[in-house]
Specification:
The protein has helices at about 10-25, 60-75, 75-80, 95-105, 115-125, 145-160, 205, 230-235, 295-310, 360-370, 375-380, and strands at about 5-10, 30-35, 50, 85, 90, 110-115, 135-140, 140-145, 165, 170-175, 180-185, 190, 195-200, 220-230, 240-245, 250, 260-265, 270, 275, 275-280, 295, 320-325, 335-340, 340-350, 400-405, 410. It has about 425 residues and is α+β, with helices and mostly antiparallel strands. Strands 6-7-5-15-16-17-14-22 form an eight-stranded mixed beta sheet, with helices on both faces. A six-stranded mixed beta sheet has the order 9-2-1-13-24-23, covered by helices on one side. A hairpin with a 7-residue loop joins strand 16 and strand 17. Helix 1 packs parallel to helix 6 (about 145-160). The longest helix is centred in the N-terminal third of the chain and has 16 residues, at about 60-75. It is globular and about 70 Å long. It starts with a strand and ends with a strand. Its cofactor is FAD. It comes from Lentinula detonsa. InterPro entries: FAD-dep_OxRdtase (IPR006076), FAD/NAD-bd_sf (IPR036188), MTOX (IPR045170).
Length: about 425
Amino acid sequence: MNSKIVILGAGCFGTSTAYHLLQRGFQDVTIIERSDEFPAKDASSNDINRIVRTSYPDPFYAKLAKEAIHSWKEDVDIWGDSYHESGVLVLGASDYAHNAYLNDVQQGLRIEQFEQSSTIRASFPPISLSNDTRGYLNHDGGWVDAGKATLLLTKKVMSLGGKLILGKRATELIRKEGTTQAVGCDDGTIVESSLVVVATGPWTPSIFPELGYNDNSVATGQGVAMIQLSEEEATIYRDVPVILNFSTGFYCFPPTKDNIVKMAIHAPGFTHTVGNISTPRTVISHPDDGLFIPKTYAQRLRDEFAAVYPELAKKGFSNTRLCWYNDSPDSDWIIGRHPTNPSIMFATGGSGHAFKFLPVIGRIVADAIQGTLDPVLEQKFAFNREITHVDDSRDGSGMFRKELDVNELCGPEN
């Protein structure tokens, strides 16, 4: 298999695709990464933690997540200790949560149902919830150190013969005889290709406007905040599960080894429009305030956190960040060839729920590259698919997508 595969982006989709292609015998796989440091400090795949859950109403994602968790736990030669099986406490009375519960039960997972908040508090004394809160604990889940996992998989890719080119931003798709045969970079470097895999996450809509991708997804910033605990505080909260409330969108993690608690809201997010295309605004593009979040969002985070951990909520934020997603309208990924340029393959549209699938998502892309992807999945992830449903996983937040107002940003000290 001597095809020259060039992958743009060394995040979740890009590194996983490279790994699975190399495992299948592809011999010429190159990843081009815009950042000169790795993992890129503004990439969503470079994070202290990401939720690993099987709790999906869509049976496909539920089953695939179970397969991913098996790898997280068993393939320690790849992942080391990056996965932490804390369990995921799923809260909320939405249809999304109910159908996710049914799928978890159907898969035979270790489920513990809670009919009232008092039983949750009895199991996890640090957690404080309103009396009408119901949910279930999925013991087969938890969280992963995303930055560490990305780095470990990339090292595995390089050990298999894959190449990683850092600090070069792809700026041109060079076509000859009607097909793309090379990628041009901002410094003049040209990398020859048989196939270009565009795995550029939230930068996808803006990187090559001529591909007409902008109508397929939108880059959205999601506010995240962290709180620094003392060693004594962290000891009290160390064994709590990930909390994920589909009725409000709020979620938070147990303390990391550095005693940091991270929180966010699974919400529609914020756009940042540049030239009619939403484009990430990060610490690299805006060093002074690229990590700041909107004030109203910060207050919502504090209020939601106080409802779960009232004692910790008295502490100020130690860090904030806008984590940028590439959201498709239906929250399904975009994996498939460009309809008029088959030498371009998209592997993107993570929609805020792709990272947990890092061990297996590249398998789907590799199938698409080799033409062996199940026709049902081929249509599900097609670049030009008809949108038949919308993502309702974020409905509980009660928030609407809006344009980012840079005059309303605040940092951790605010």
